[in-house]
């Protein structure tokens, strides 16, 4: 088969010109296989610098798309493209240059022993700094018809490899750009999470509490979407700090946070640390006094039945005050103030209990 490398290159460029990314590489492998009658063609990239493992981006074997896969270079003719130390048999091969094995490929390389490949042509692919980042490989079962035929094939592969190289670099840069954007987005999420999270308890902090309360109040004003606020204060917490020290006090606060979190439904009952030993739960959705009462009872029971890490003989209790929004409220602070008053009443009535704002009780009874 006589090949005009320039006409063949023109055909290859015509077939692949509008394509990019993996679509381009699949088309390139397919058309190289068809136009040059190669039995096996693939485009591969190094997984990382100085690695002997390559990732095949696209491949075509006997006219069939073989998809993506990976392999290690040792024992393959592809290793000659990357090799620094060449055996006598390959003394004319220079690392990073075009490689052509003219005959008996199936005998000369361990990885090709089970094939009938006679000829291998490999073209290096480099980045903008001339570092090897991959290669283009073609295998033929038929030997060259002539030296001219060999020269034409090698010349065509080398010329077209520049187009493959450009696309591979573009894909790598695009992948790096997308990864950088993903890393930036992840960093921004972490930063945002840090700005709304209490570092000791890993609960939402006071700043986020104000934001979520404002959002809940706005929804209530727009369409009467219900919510309730429960303020929680740890009973006699000061005595723990005074008697056992602040480190043990911090452990106790983490214990409180864990109990509140485990007894609240994610995204429905949001838990906050709003002060030293003061916490809050913003309850959202369809609510009733009974739901809030059951939540309060569940929390109280959880505290009574748990032990503080480091203080197994001491039991914590909490006092709670709850309130619902009302039509006359001008801001969420009105709900907060009513819940705070209910909390004050709970503490003055013996602690270890939930008191719900009387206005809500009256509304429930109407």
Q: Which structural traits does this protein have?
A:
366 residues, alpha+beta, Beta-Lactamase, Alpha-Beta Plaits, 2 domains, seven-stranded antiparallel sheet, five-stranded mixed sheet, 11 helices, 19% strand, elongated, disordered C terminus
Concise synopsis of the structure shown:
The protein is an alpha+beta fold. It is built from eleven helices and twelve strands.
Question: What does this molecule look like?
Answer:
This protein is an alpha+beta fold. It has two domains: 5-180, Beta-Lactamase (2-Layer Sandwich), CATH 3.30.450.40; 206-365, Reverse transcriptase/Diguanylate cyclase domain (Alpha-Beta Plaits). The chain has helices at residues 5-16, 21-36, 79-82, 105-108, 147-195, 206-223, 237-244, 246-262, 289-304, 332-348, 358-365, and strands spanning 40-46, 53-61, 64-65, 69-72, 99-101, 119-126, 132-140, 227-234, 269-273, 278-284, 318-323, 354-356. Strands 1, 2, 3, 4, 5, 6 and 7 form a seven-stranded antiparallel β-sheet that branches. Strand 6 (119-126) and strand 7 form a beta hairpin. Helix 2 packs antiparallel against helix 5 and helix 7 (237-244) packs antiparallel against helix 8 (246-262).
């Amino acid at each position: 088969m006589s090949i005009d490398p320039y006409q063949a290159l023109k055909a290859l460029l015509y077939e692949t010109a509008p394509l990019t990314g993996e679509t381009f590489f699949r088309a390139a492998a397919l058309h190289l296989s068809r136009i040059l009658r190669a039995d096996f063609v693939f485009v591969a990239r190094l997984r990382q610098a100085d690695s002997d493992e390559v990732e095949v981006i696209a491949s075509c074997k006997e006219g069939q798309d073989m998809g993506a896969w990976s392999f290690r270079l040792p024992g393959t003719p592809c290793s000659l493209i990357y090799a620094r130390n060449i055996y006598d048999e390959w003394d004319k091969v220079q690392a990073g240059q075009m490689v052509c094995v003219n005959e008996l490929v199936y005998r000369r390389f361990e990885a090709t022993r089970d094939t009938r490949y006679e000829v291998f042509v490999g073209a290096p692919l480099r980045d903008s700094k001339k570092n090897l980042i991959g290669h283009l490989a073609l295998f033929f079962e038929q030997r060259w018809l002539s030296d001219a035929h060999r020269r034409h094939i090698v010349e065509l592969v080398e010329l077209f490899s520049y187009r493959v190289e450009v696309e591979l670099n573009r894909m790598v840069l695009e992948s790096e750009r997308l990864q950088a954007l993903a890393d930036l987005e992840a960093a921004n999420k972490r930063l945002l999470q840090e700005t709304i999270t209490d570092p000791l308890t890993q609960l939402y902090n006071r700043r986020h509490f104000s934001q979520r309360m404002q959002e809940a109040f706005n929804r209530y004003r727009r369409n009467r979407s219900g919510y309730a606020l429960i303020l929680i204060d740890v009973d006699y917490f000061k005595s723990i700090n005074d008697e056992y020290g602040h480190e043990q006090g911090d452990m106790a606060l983490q214990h409180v946070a864990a109990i509140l979190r485990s007894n609240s439904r994610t995204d429905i009952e949001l838990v906050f640390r709003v002060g030293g030993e003061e916490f809050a739960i913003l309850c959202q959705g369809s609510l009733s006094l009974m739901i809030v009462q059951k939540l309060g009872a569940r929390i109280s029971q959880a505290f009574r039945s748990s032990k503080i890490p480091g203080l197994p003989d001491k039991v914590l209790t909490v006092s709670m005050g709850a309130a619902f929004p009302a039509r006359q409220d001008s801001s969420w602070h009105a709900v907060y103030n009513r819940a705070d008053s209910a909390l004050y009443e709970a503490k003055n009535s013996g602690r270890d209990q939930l008191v719900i704002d009387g206005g809500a009780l009256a509304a429930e009874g109407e």
